Amino acid sequence: MDLDRLGDLCLDAAFAVHRELGPGLLESVYETCLIMELEALQLRVVSQAQVPIVYRGRTLSTPLRLDLVVEETVILEVKAVDRLLPVHAAQLLTYMKLADKPLGYLLNFNTPLLRDGIRRLIRT
Question: pTM for the full model?
Answer without folding.
Answer: 0.95
